[in-house]
């Protein structure tokens, strides 16, 4: 009763006061409220170590992200503070595999954190990548998976074969034995955009053949992505840019002449054409066929197709480019891999093009791919899951409900306790010179680069198909040389990587058996 009287007195004083006094009173109330909120969130997680600034301000994460060195910055913090570090007022970051398996498991009660809202590429609906409701996510994903696995009407292996043949042809025609350097980073981007579009909706965008960013997707991504990664670290900005108010005012629309809106328009048209025709009679051998068969609506197909190019291009391209750089930077690895390919061809164990099964039986190739993904995991950080209301114990400490747990994949796959004291060195032999149990343990840890359990990357099948084939097809045809060993590429790390200017000189490999 007394409290109510005090509030009433306060309001009546305000009522009688002048505007300046009212503004000052409201201002100081707001500041007091913010202070209390900051103190409360600092207090909740005060027992977790981390940079002090991060414990009460999101500017810490924002500033680190803008450096383009996020992988190194986070690794340094984890080195200093241990497997669990506080990186924000309500955020912890871990590189502990047991924790990741636990919070991402199929039966886990951890939902997605609000961070996922900022990867809602279509402002008017959620794809499986951003859907915040776990039950809806699971329901949608169940309908998508047969397409992503390349089952039923989908023939992913054929798609990969077609696009790799085109990649080899472009290099042969435009670069091999010529005085012209190949920008491998850019060409692989064209390749990947075409592969994802052909696998998703049956028709490549044609970027690779013409070496051209036909629908301006790459241009948009380059301008937008660094900004996106940085603002994702500040919840207030993230919520504002993802709000219906902002999106309706300034967000992309399928009718736009360029930018993200133009991209959404292309996707919308592709799906509309398919729904207009009698798809039952005309099979296209793509994921869209399979999704429609599984009962996805026209709108759901649009949302899922729209997410494929962003989700499936920067990740796979990072893997291909970085594995290539690491192969070319080690004469031993390069020589051994070429020899494994040559011997496989001589002994009739490698067809043209190599099949998925044949590639799986090349132990050195498998080791090189795992080790390459380990050296540069395409996703660095992000993907937070939220501790359920009752709280949980992580890395031996109690974490209150509502806390966001970010993952540090870079540190996870360089964990010296798992990979040994030379974890920072590219050494594919670590997957071969060990017993089966150790190998299984290493592989399981690297697999975390694709997420885990309920949230496992559905594009993993396509990614592995590409990785299994692309190096064999390129190295059996060409000899590559890094054009500028002093600075082989321009690589920036945010939540994922952006890699440009990776120049190679190419010549035909005359010694490889045909
Ligand atoms: C080397 C290649 C790739 C890597 C390392 C990778 C990694 C990841 C990671 C870490 C996640 C997030 C997991 C989480 O939320 O906890 C993810 C999700 C996803 N990825 Fe990939 N990805 C790759 C390729 C692809 C490709 C080629 C596609 C599509 C063609 C794709 C489509 C998706 C989708 C749709 C999701 C959302 C899954 C869900 O919400 O359950 N990815 N990926």
TrEMBL record:
<keyword id="KW-0349">Heme</keyword>
<keyword id="KW-0408">Iron</keyword>
<feature type="binding site" description="axial binding residue">
    <location>
        <position position="457"/>
    </location>
    <ligand>
        <name>heme</name>
    </ligand>
</feature>
<dbReference type="InterPro" id="IPR036396">
    <property type="entry name" value="Cyt_P450_sf"/>
</dbReference>
<dbReference type="GO" id="GO:0005506">
    <property type="term" value="F:iron ion binding"/>
</dbReference>
<dbReference type="GO" id="GO:0016705">
    <property type="term" value="F:oxidoreductase activity, acting on paired donors, with incorporation or reduction of molecular oxygen"/>
</dbReference>
<protein>
    <submittedName>
        <fullName>Cytochrome P450</fullName>
    </submittedName>
</protein>
<keyword id="KW-0503">Monooxygenase</keyword>
<keyword id="KW-0560">Oxidoreductase</keyword>
<dbReference type="GO" id="GO:0004497">
    <property type="term" value="F:monooxygenase activity"/>
</dbReference>
<dbReference type="InterPro" id="IPR002401">
    <property type="entry name" value="Cyt_P450_E_grp-I"/>
</dbReference>
<keyword id="KW-0479">Metal-binding</keyword>
<dbReference type="InterPro" id="IPR001128">
    <property type="entry name" value="Cyt_P450"/>
</dbReference>
<dbReference type="Pfam" id="PF00067">
    <property type="entry name" value="p450"/>
</dbReference>
<dbReference type="GO" id="GO:0020037">
    <property type="term" value="F:heme binding"/>
</dbReference>
<dbReference type="InterPro" id="IPR050121">
    <property type="entry name" value="Cytochrome_P450_monoxygenase"/>
</dbReference>
<comment type="similarity">
    <text>Belongs to the cytochrome P450 family.</text>
</comment>
């Amino acid at each position: 009763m007394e409290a109510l009287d005090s509030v009433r007195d306060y309001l009546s004083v305000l009522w009688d006061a002048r505007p300046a006094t009212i503004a000052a009173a409201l201002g100081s109330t707001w500041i007091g409220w913010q202070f209390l909120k900051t103190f409360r969130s600092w207090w909740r997680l005060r027992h977790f170590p981390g940079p002090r600034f991060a414990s009460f301000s999101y500017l810490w994460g924002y500033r680190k992200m803008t450096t383009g060195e996020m992988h190194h910055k986070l690794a340094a913090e984890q080195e200093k503070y241990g497997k669990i570090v506080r990186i924000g007022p309500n955020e912890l970051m871990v590189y502990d595999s047991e924790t990741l398996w636990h919070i991402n498991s199929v039966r886990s009660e951890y939902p997605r954190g609000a961070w996922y809202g900022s990867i809602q590429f279509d402002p008017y609906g959620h794809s499986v990548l951003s859907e915040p409701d776990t039950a809806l996510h699971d329901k949608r994903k169940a309908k998508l998976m047969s397409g992503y696995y390349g089952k039923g009407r989908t023939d992913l292996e054929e798609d990969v074969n077609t696009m790799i043949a085109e990649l080899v042809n472009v290099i042969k025609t435009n670069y091999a034995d010529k005085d012209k350097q190949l920008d491998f980073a850019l060409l692989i981007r064209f390749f990947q955009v075409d592969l994802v579009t052909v696998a998703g909706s049956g028709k490549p965008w044609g970027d690779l053949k013409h070496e051209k960013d036909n629908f301006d997707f790459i241009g948009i991504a380059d301008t937008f992505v660094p900004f996106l990664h940085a603002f994702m670290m500040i919840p207030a900005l993230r919520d504002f840019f993802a709000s219906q108010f902002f999106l309706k005012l300034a967000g992309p629309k399928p009718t736009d002449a360029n930018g993200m809106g133009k991209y959404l328009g292309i996707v919308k048209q592709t799906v509309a054409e398919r729904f207009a025709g009698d798809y039952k009679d005309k099979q296209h051998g793509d994921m869209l066929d399979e999704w429609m068969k599984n009962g996805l609506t026209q709108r759901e197909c649009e949302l899922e197709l729209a997410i494929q190019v962003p989700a499936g291009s920067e990740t796979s391209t990072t893997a291909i480019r970085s594995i290539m750089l690491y192969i070319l930077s080690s004469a031993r690895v390069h020589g051994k891999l070429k020899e494994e390919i040559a011997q496989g061809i001589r002994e009739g164990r490698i067809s043209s093009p190599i099949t998925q099964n044949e590639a799986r039986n090349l132990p050195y190739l498998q080791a090189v791919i795992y080790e390459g993904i380990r050296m540069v995991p395409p996703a660095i950080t992000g993907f937070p899951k939220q501790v359920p209301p009752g709280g949980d114990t992580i890395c031996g400490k109690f974490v209150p409900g509502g806390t966001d747990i970010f993952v540090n994949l870079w540190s996870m796959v360089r964990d010296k306790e798992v990979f040994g004291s030379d974890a920072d060195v590219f050494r594919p032999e670590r997957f071969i010179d060990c017993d089966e149990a150790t190998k299984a343990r290493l592989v399981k840890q690297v697999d975390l680069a694709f997420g885990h359990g309920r949230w496992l990357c559905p594009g993993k099948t396509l990614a592995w198909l590409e990785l299994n084939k692309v190096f064999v097809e390129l190295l059996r045809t060409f000899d590559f040389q890094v054009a500028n060993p002093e600075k082989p590429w321009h690589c920036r790390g945010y939540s994922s990587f952006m890699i440009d200017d990776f120049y190679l000189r190419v010549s035909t490999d005359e010694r490889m058996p045909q």
